[in-house]
Amino acid sequence: MAQLNDLGIDLGTSNVLIYQQGKGLVLRRPAVVAIERSTKKVLAIGDDAQRMVGRTPSNIMAIRPLKQGTVADFELTNTMLRFFLNGVLSKRLFSGPRVVMSVPSGVTETEKHSLINILLDAGVKRTYLLDRPLAAALGVGMDLRQRYGRMIVDMGAGITDIAVISEGEIVQSSSVYYAGDYFDDAIVRYIRKKYSLLIGERTAEQIKINIGTAMKPETDEANLAMPVVGRNQLSGLPRTQEIHAAEIYEALKDPVAALIGSIQDVLVRTPPQLASDIFDDGIVLSGGAAGLARLPEAIYTALHIPCGVADDPQTSVVLGCGIAVEDPGAYASLLDDGFQAPVSHCNRMHPVFFPEAERHGALFCGKGFVIPCVTIKCGWISPQNQMNSNEIKRNQMKSNYLDEHPFPVLQYHCRNSSE
Q1: Longest Cα pair distance anywhere in the chain, in angstroms?
Q2: β 160-166/350-353 pair status
Q3: Most buried in the list 126, 133, 233, 339, measured by CB within 10 Å?
């Protein structure tokens, strides 16, 4: 699979990270797009759009195209991803890259197809999906081939993936919304309720980073404070309020307890021998939200299981995707094979050959999908009838026609054709 432009992508709720084969981490940008409200015209993407959050006039919106690990706006996600890929890849490349992209463990097949279609539209040649817990485990250095139970908790902005892994497979898992954005919302609600002060999500995030804690602060820590500027709900005027670490602990106490409860639920469903391995080896936290102060201590206090944070929790997932990109043969069993992208562009019908069509010189349409016809009848193909290569091979093996015609001639039609 590997070629010089192969990529690993962590398409997160708050940030997009891209790993390029042979180069390492080449991009880390906020997953934010600024658009004009009336015309939907894209005004800024990434860092420029991030600086607009909470500061835009009424006719401009700075939004995240992804919500809680899923695509909320297909078109904006497509535009954003194209922008980032163009900034990474050389314009002299004649074929699109092949990509390993992480997905939450609880994602549905429909959501998987949506993500694959976005990458196809963005010019990607082939997509391989890798569960986020497996990607995070690879990124923190776990040996997934061992017959040994390991637990990884990947805490992103929109979703937290909790998984027990053994022999390269997810034995038990859960995807919950007790993640970075949920913690930020808890801080916003607490300050609004206690001080009648409205603050933005970026301010709440800074409070969480600077003085947030998952454990009750000690005497010295309780006095730690930072000034916060918001809008007074009563007067409507700006106001500065000093917020203490002990107050942020109160705001985060329930969300942290809910997160720990979700971890415990996964442990309860885990087979006893694997649970014993986890009790011995501990829990590993990854993801940006794992940086909350004293979170490992809070988990250990509640569950009596050792807990630690990855060395660089924000890049664990994309580094795991990068490891799969660098040595795809060793990790092929972990990857969900995506759809083969087309390699030439036109708006007409063409004969094509399956399996291994590309290798045998078949022509594909740049905007169409090629689907085998098990009865070997030519016909109009709709994009809803997509299959991956494994399904194609299994279906073709069922046809007696293949005994005489190992590469049946099929037809397809461009999905964007007006015919």
Answers
A1: 82
A2: unpaired
A3: 133
User: What was the pLDDT predicted at 4?
Assistant: 61
Distance of CA 358 to the CA centre of its chain: 29
Helix and strand numbers, DSSP H then E, in the chain: 12, 21
Judge whether residue 389 has pLDDT over 60.
no
**DSSP assigned state of 342:** P
- Tally Cβ neighbours within 10 Å of residue 248: 27
The DSSP code sequence of 54-108 is: T---TTEEEE-SEETTEES-HHHHHHHHHHHHHHHS-TT-SSPPEEEEEE-TT--
pTM for the full predicted model: 0.78
Residue 193, judged by CB atoms within 10 A of its CB (0-12, 13-18, 19+), counts as: exposed
d(CA 226, CA 169): 44
Cβ contact 117:98 at 8 Å:
no
Within 282-404, where are the H helices? 295-303, 316-326, 389-397
CB 129 within 8 A of CB 104: no
8 A C-beta contact, residue 32 and residue 50:
yes
Q: Which residue has the tokens 């709709």?
A: 382
Q: What letter would DSSP give residue 392? A: H
In this structure, are residues 415 and 369 in contact, taking their beta carbons and an 8 Å threshold? yes
User: How many Å apart are CA 111 and CA 175, to the nearest integer?
Assistant: 14
Quick one: DSSP state of residue 159? -
Give the number of other CB atoms < 10 A from CB of residue 219.
Answer: 7
- Residue type, position 72, single letter: A
Is the pLDDT at 343 greater than 60? The verdict is: no
| Digit-coded pLDDT (tens) for 196-218 | 999 998 999 999 999 999 999 98
Q: Are 49 and 28 in contact (CB under 8 A)?
A: no
Closest CA to 186 of 158, 161, 159, 205: 205
β-pair partners for 29: 16
Supply the pLDDT for residue 67: 85
Q: Cα–Cα distance between 197 and 227 in angstroms, integer?
A: 12
Pairwise CA distance, residues 367 & 361, whole Å: 18
